[in-house]
Design goal:
homohexamer, alpha+beta, five-stranded mixed beta barrel, 40% helix, elongated
Chain lengths: 313, 313, 313, 313, 313, 313
C-alpha cells in the first residue's frame, strides 16, 4: 500500500483510503466539486473531485474508497485530484492500515500491564483491577484498542494502553523511591484514571466525543463504572472506595482543569504529576517528529506557549 | 430560656447551652483554665472557667451543659465567666433551641415543594422526584432538616429546603417567562442540585465536612445517589439520565468553581443563575442582619469583595 | 417581499434590499468587481457584481437597492450574482422590512412597562421614571425603537425595550419573593440601567458605536442624562440620587467588566443578576435558533466557552 | 510642642494631641480601661488610661486633648500611660500641627501650578482650567489643602496639589519630548484627573471615604463636576468635552483598576503612566523613609509584592 | 528611487528592492507561480510572478532584485505583477534605502548619549559606560545601528539608540525631579538595559531571533556581557555589580513579563516605568502614523486591547 | 542531649541550645523581659526570661547557650521559663545537633551522585560536571552540606544533595523510558539546576537570603558560575553552553514562577517536572510528618490550597 506520508508531487496513485470527510462545494464559476479528506495511518490528505463524471461512484464519509488520483502541490501542501473513485469491498483493505497505531506490540504491553496487578498488595484493589483488566474480557479488549485522546497525545490505536502503561512504570519508580506512597492505591488510581475515555470517545476509525462524553465527561463516567463493579464486591471498604474515587476525580490537579477536587492524598498528587509528565513528553516528541528534521527550531507551539527546539549541538 | 443574643454585660445567667468546643489552657502565670464555646440558636459565646473547683463537673464537646456564669465585656465582646457547670439530662432542654433554624414553617415549605412535582410533565422525572421526595421517607426527612452549607448561606436547620424551594419559585417564574425552557428538566435539576450535601455535611447540632464529603464532594455524591434510584426505574431513558446528571454536574457554572463541565443546556445555565441569585441575596441579607442597624455602611465583606450599605435615604 | 432567509440555490430574485456594505475588488486576473452585503430583517447575504455594465447604476453603503440577481451556492453559503441594480425610491420599500425586530408588539410591551412605574412607591423615583418614559416623548420613542446591543443579545428593533421589560418582570418576582428589596429602587435601576445605549449606539438600520459611546460608554452617558433630569426636580434627595447612580454604575458586577464600582447595595447586586440572566437566556436561545434543528449539538460557542446542546431526549 | 516622633521611652509628656480614636475595653481581670490613639503630624501613638480617676475628663474621638502621660516601651512600640486628660480649648493648639503635611510651600506650588495654565493654547481648556483653579476660590482653596489619598501616597495636607504638580512637570517634559502630544489636552487631563477626590474623601484632620465617594467614586464625581462647569461655557465643543472626560475616565489604565474605559488617546495613555510614576516613586520613597536608615533591606512590601532595598554600596 | 509607500494602482515600476521572502506556489489550475515579498525602508509589498519566462532570472530570499512590474489593486492591497527580474549588483543600490531607519541623525543622537556619561558621578559606573560606549568601537558601532525590536516599537535602524536616548532624557528629568534617585545608577541601568538585544536579534536587513536569543534571551545575554567587562575592572565593588545586574534583570517589572526579579530598588522601579512610557508612546504614535489620517478612529489595537483615536476636535 | 521535640510540660531542663533569636520586651506592667527562640535539629521553642538576675549572662542571637529552664504549656504550646543562662564554649556542643539534617548518609548520597557523572556520554558535559562536583573540593563540600531552601522542602543540612540526587534517579528513569531524551543534557541540567542556591542562601545554622540572592537570585547566580567554568574549558561548544544555560533558566517552567524563558527543549521540560515532583512529594510528606498521626485529615495547607489526608482505610 502507498501511504499518504510517502506520496510526492507528480505521483499517480491508485489505492484505497478511508474517507474521513466529504463536502460538496462550488467553484467561483458555479461548478460543483467535491472536497474529500483521505486518511490512512500515516495521516490525512486533501483531495478534490473537479469532474463528477461516470467514474465517480456514490460514497460517503466513513467509507473505504478506492481512488485513482494525481498528486499536485497547492500552496505548500499536497493535493489529490481524483479522477475515478469507488467504495472498496471488505477484504480489499486491512482496517489497521487506516488508523494511526502505537508503535509497540499491544499484547506485550498488555502482559506487562497485568504484571503490575500482581504487585498490588491490597486485596480489594487487586481484586477490583483483576475484575476489570483480566476477567472482564470486553473491557480489556476495548482498553487494549482505544485511543487516549481525540488529538493532542496518544491519539492512536492502543494509545490508552501505552499511556497508562508508561504511567505505571513511572508509578512503580515513584513507589520504590518514596516509601511514603501506598503502592496499591497509586497503581489502582493510575490504571483506572482514564477508563472513562472508553465511553467518552467513540471508537476507531473516526474518534469523536459521544453524547455521554460531552454531557458528563470521562472522570464522571469512570467513577460510575468503577462504582458499579465495587458494589458487586462484598465487603469492599467504603472508605477505600472513596479514596480511589478521589484519585480519579482529582487527577487533573486543578479545578480549572476539570477536577472538581484538588489532590488531597499524596498518591493523588503523584498520580497527577505522573499523568502530566507522560502526556507532555509524548506531546513534545510527537511535535518534534512532525516537523522537518533539518530545522533546529520547529516553530511556536500553542500547547507549550513557546517555540521549541531540537536538542542538538 | 435566656438566649445568648439577649445577654448583656453584668448579667448573671443560669441556663443550659450546647458546648460547641472545649479547650484546656494556661494563664501566663501557669494556672490551668478552660476555654469553652457556648452555642444556642442565636449564636455562640466565649466562656472561661478560671477556677476548676468542685462545682465544675466533667463535660466534653457536644454536651448540653447547665452553667452558672457572670457576663463581662472583654475587648468589645461578651465573655462568660463560669462558676458552676454540669452536664444536662435529656428532657431538660429542647435541641431545637440550640441550632439556628429557618424562620419559615418546615411543613408549609415541604408541601409547597411537593406541589412543584405535580407540575412536571415528564413522566420519568416526575417519577424520580416522587420516589425521592415523597416515597423515600428517610430521604425526605433528612432533606427537610438539613443545612445547605457549613457557613455562608442557608447554614441553618431547614436551610436546604428553604434554599431549594426559593430556587423552585424562581425556576417556575423562569419557565413561565421563557418558553424555551423545559420545565420538567429545570425543576428536576433544581430539586436535586444540592442533594449530595445531605452526605457531604454532617448533621446538626455540629455541622462539618464528612470524610466522603471532603474526598468526593456533594456534586459527585448527588449524582451517585441519583444513579442508584434511576437504575431501579425500568425504561428510564439513558439520554435523559445524562442530561439530568449534567444539570447537577455543571450547576457551579465554571470549572474553577468545582463544576467539571460548564452548562451546555439552557436549563443547566438557568439553574446556575437561579442557584446563584437565591444564595447571594440570602448571603447579602444575612450580612445586613448581622450588623448594627444604625450603620448605613456595614464594612468590607470578603464574600462580595466590597464594603456594603443598607439601602435607605 | 422575498426575504434572504427564504432564498434557495438556483433562485432568480428581483427585489429591494439594504446595502449594508460595498467594496471594490479585483479578481486575480485583474478585473474589477464589487462585493456587496445585502441586508433585510432576516439576515444578510453576500452578493457580487462581476460585470459592471450599464445595468449597474451608482449606489453606496446605506442605500436601499433594487437588484436583479441569481443565487448560487459557494463554499457552503448562498451567493447573489447581481446582473442589474438601481437605488430604490422612498415609498418603494418599508424600512421595517430591513432591520431585525422584536417578535413582540412594541406598544403592548410599552404599556406593560409603564405599568411598572405605578408600582413604585417612592415618589421621587416614580416622578423621575414618569418624566423619562411618559413625559419625554422623544426619549420614550427612542427607547421603544432602539437596539440593546450591536450584536450578542437583543440586537434588534425594540431590543432595549424587550430586554428591560423582561428584566422588570424578573425584578417584580424578586421584589415579591425577597421582601428585603426596595422595590422602587430595584425597578428604577432596572429601567435606567441601559438608557445610555440610546446614545452609545447609532440608530437603525446600521448600528455602530458613536464617538461619544466609544469615548465614555453607556454607563457614563446614562448617568449624565439621569443627572440632568434629577437636577431639575426640586428636592430630589441627594443620597437617593447617589444610590440610583450607583445602581447604574455597578450593574456590570465586576470592575473587569467595566463597572467602576462593585454592587454595594442588595438591589444593585440583584440588578446585576437580573440583567445577566435575561441576557444569557436570550443569547442561548438565539444561538439555538440559528442552527440546524436536527442537530442535538450545535457546536462550540465562544460566548459560553463550550459546546451547547438542545435539551431533548 | 513635643512631637510623637521625638518621644523616647521613659519620657514624661504634658501636651496636646488629636484623639484619632477612643475605645473602652476591659482587662482580663475585668477592670475597665481606655485605649486611645493620639495623632500629630509626625504620626500616631497608642495610649492607655488604666485608672479612670477624677483627672480624666470627658472626651471623644476627634477632640484635641491635653494629656499628662509617661512613656513606656511595650513589645517593641512606645505606649503612653495617661494619668490626666482634658479637652483643649481652641487657641491652645494649631491644627496644622496635627495633620501630616507636604514638605513644600503650598503657595509656591500653587503659583507654579497656575503657570501651567498659561501654556495651554486651546482656549476652551485654558478657560475651563482658569475657571476652576483661579476663579473658583472655594475650589482652589480645597484643592490646595486636600489629601490625594486616605493612605498609600500623598496622604497629607497639600497632597493632591503636590501630586498633581509633580505630574504636570512630567507632562510638560513628555509634551516637549514627544511632539505628537496635544499639550493642552494632556495638561487639562492631568489637572482634573483626581479632582473628584475633593468629594470622595472627607477633610482633615480625619480622612475617610464619604457616602458619595463610596457609592460613585472620584472618577464619576470628577466628571460630573467638570460637566457642570463645561455646560456653562457657551460654545464649548462637545467632542472636546468627551475627549476630556475620557482622559479622566481612563486614567487608571485598566478596567480592573476601576477605569470603565482603557486609554484610547495617546494623551490618555500618557496621563495614566504619568500618574503611575509619580505615585509609585512617592510610595517607594515614603516606605524607605519610614524604616531604620541602617538597614539595606527594609522588608517585604505588600504594595510592591517584594522586599525592597536602599540603593547604596 | 521609487519607494513602495509612494506607488499607486496602475503604475509601472522598474527598480531595485530587497527580496524579503520568496515562495513557490501553484494556481488552482496547477500552474506554478512565485509569491515574493518586496521590501524597502518604507515598508513591504506583495508581488507575484505569474509567468516564469526567460526574463525571470534565478534569485533567492535576501537578494536585492531589480524588477519590472505593473501595479494592480487586489482585495484592497497593492499587488506587483513582475514581468522581468534579475539580481542587482553591489553598487547599484544603497542598503540604507532598504531598511526602515530612525528619522533622527545617528551621530547627533550618539553625541547626546555620550554627554549623559559625563553626568555620572559614580566613578565605577562612569568607567564601565565609557568602556562600552566610547572605547569599545565595535560595540558602539553595533549599538548605533541596531534595532530595538523585531517588531512593535523602534523596529528600525538606529532604533535601540533612539529608544535608549529617549529613556535617558526621561531619566535625567526623573533624577532632577526626585532627588532620592541615584543618578549614576539610574543612567547606567538605562544605558545597559537592552544591550543584550544586540545579540538576541540578528542584524539588518532581515531581523530575527538568534539561537542564543531564543534560548537565553536579551536580559541574560546583557548581564553576561556586562559581567565580562566588570570583571576586568580591578576594584569594581561587587555590591554595585549586583545592584546594576538587578536593574537589568528586573526592568520588565513583573515575573510574568520575563523579569526573574521584581524591581527592589527605586531606580529599578523608575527604569521599568521609563522603558514602558517611551516604548508605549512610540508604539501608539507608530500605529497612528500607519493609518488613514482622515479617520478619527483607527480600529482595535491588539497591543492596547482597545480601539484608539486621533486626538482632535 | 535532651531534644526540644522530646520535652514535656513540667520538665526541668539543663542543656545547650542555639539562640535563633533574642528580643527585649516589656510586660504590660512595664517590666523588661527577654523572649528567646531556642533551636536544635528537632525544631524550635519559645523561651522567656522573666527575671533578669545575676544568673543570666550576656548573650546574643547566634550563640549556643546553656540554659536552666522549666517547661510550662501556654495556650497549647510549650514555653521554656529560663532561670539561668550562659554562653556555651566550643567543645561543649556538637553543631550537628542544632540544625535539621537529612536522614540519609551524606557520603553515600554523594557517591551515588558521582556515579551519575559516569553515565554522561557527552564529553563536554561530563568534563564540566567533573570539574564542579569532583575536582572543585570547596564547591563539592558546600554542595554536600547546603540546604535546598529557606523553608518549604529539603530545608535541612544535606538538603540540596538529597533533592538533586532524588531528581537524578528520576532523570535516569525518564532517560531510560523515553529514548528521545539526551541523557547527558538532562543529567547536567539536573545537577546544576539549583547550584546558585549555594550563594543565594546563607549557611547553617541560620539560613537566610544573601544580598546577592535577593538582588539577582539563584538562577542568575548559577548561570554566572557555570559560565565562569565553561569559559575555562577550551573548545566547549557555544551552542551546548546555551542549551545548558537554557536548562537552568527555564527550570521553574513558567515566567510567572521566575523563569525568564519557558522550557524550549524536551530535556528542559522534563527537568521542570522532575524538580516539581521530587519537591512536591517531599513537601507533602513533611506536612504529614509534622501532624498528629492519629488524625486522618491534617488541615488546610496553603501550599496545596486544600485540606490533605493521610491515605489509610
Amino acid at each position: 500500500m502507498r501511504y499518504l506520508a510517502d506520496v510526492s508531487e507528480g505521483d499517480q496513485i491508485v489505492d484505497i483510503y478511508l474517507c474521513a470527510d466529504r463536502q460538496v462545494l462550488k467553484t467561483r464559476a458555479g461548478k460543483t466539486y467535491y472536497s474529500v479528506r483521505l486518511q490512512d495511518k500515516t495521516g490525512t490528505g486533501d483531495a478534490k473531485i473537479w469532474d463528477l463524471n461516470d467514474g465517480i461512484h456514490d460514497f460517503k464519509k466513513g467509507d473505504y474508497i478506492k481512488v485513482d488520483a494525481s498528486v499536485v502541490s497547492f500552496q505548500g501542501s499536497m493535493q489529490y485530484n481524483i479522477r475515478r473513485l469507488r467504495v472498496a469491498q471488505e477484504g480489499e483493505y486491512d482496517p489497521v492500515d487506516y488508523v494511526p497505531s502505537t508503535e509497540f506490540d499491544i499484547n506485550d504491553m498488555y502482559n506487562e500491564f497485568i504484571g503490575f496487578i500482581d504487585e498490588m498488595d491490597d486485596k480489594w484493589l487487586n481484586q477490583l483491577a483483576t475484575q476489570f483488566f483480566v476477567e472482564d474480557k470486553e473491557f480489556a479488549k476495548a482498553f487494549k484498542a482505544h485511543s487516549a485522546a481525540k488529538s493532542v497525545h496518544h491519539a492512536f490505536y492502543g494509545g490508552i494502553l501505552e499511556h497508562t502503561l508508561g504511567m505505571l512504570r513511572l508509578a512503580k519508580f515513584i513507589a520504590d523511591q518514596y516509601p511514603v506512597m501506598n503502592r496499591s492505591l497509586l497503581y489502582a488510581g493510575t490504571m483506572f484514571h482514564d477508563m472513562g475515555k472508553l465511553k467518552e470517545l467513540s471508537d476507531f476509525p473516526i474518534i469523536d466525543y459521544t453524547d455521554e462524553g460531552q454531557l458528563i465527561g470521562h472522570i464522571m463516567i469512570g467513577i460510575e463504572w468503577l462504582t458499579t463493579k465495587i458494589n458487586k464486591i462484598p465487603g469492599f471498604p467504603p472508605v477505600l472506595a472513596n479514596l480511589l474515587k478521589h484519585m480519579i476525580l482529582s487527577h487533573h490537579g486543578e479545578l480549572a482543569y476539570g477536577s472538581p477536587k484538588k489532590p488531597e492524598l499524596i498518591e493523588a498528587m503523584a498520580l497527577h504529576y505522573i499523568d502530566n509528565i507522560d502526556a507532555k513528553i509524548k506531546t513534545f516528541s510527537t511535535l518534534l517528529d512532525g516537523t522537518d528534521p533539518q530545522d533546529d527550531w520547529v516553530g511556536y507551539q500553542r500547547l507549550f506557549e513557546t517555540n521549541i527546539r531540537r536538542s542538538r549541538w
